[in-house]
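Sequence in, structure out.
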Amino acid sequence: MKRLLLILMLVAAPALAVQPDEMLDDPALEARAREISQGLRCLVCRNENIDDSNASLARDLRLLVRERLLEGDSDEEAVQFIVSRYGEYVLLEPPATGANLILWIAGPAMLLVALAGAAAYVRSRRRAPEPDAEGLSTEEKARLAEILKE
């Protein structure tokens, strides 16, 4: 029974938040709307697209996409309209241009800096002189004994 339940959970398709009253009558327009919605971020849920989100703002964005398509906008025009209203943050994959380029480059650049720092540290530790294996001198032993008496 547990295995059957596990298999059913793995096979189950993800439930979309798109409500029947939001869907367009034209299957071609609905398919375009779904494709556009897959690339738009829910501003409430962060890294979830608006098709998968149950937030009211995501619903508003889904309706806005469908409204723009009904008005005759191309896919790019519909996306550009939403980006002009909400900013590039609404895109799940913003373009790597302008200020976004800094964000795209910062992660890998910091990783390279950290690796270079780690390599320099390891190299300096290898070049460090070996500690003396003689142990404590007689003066140090006397000082240690004096400290331990206190």
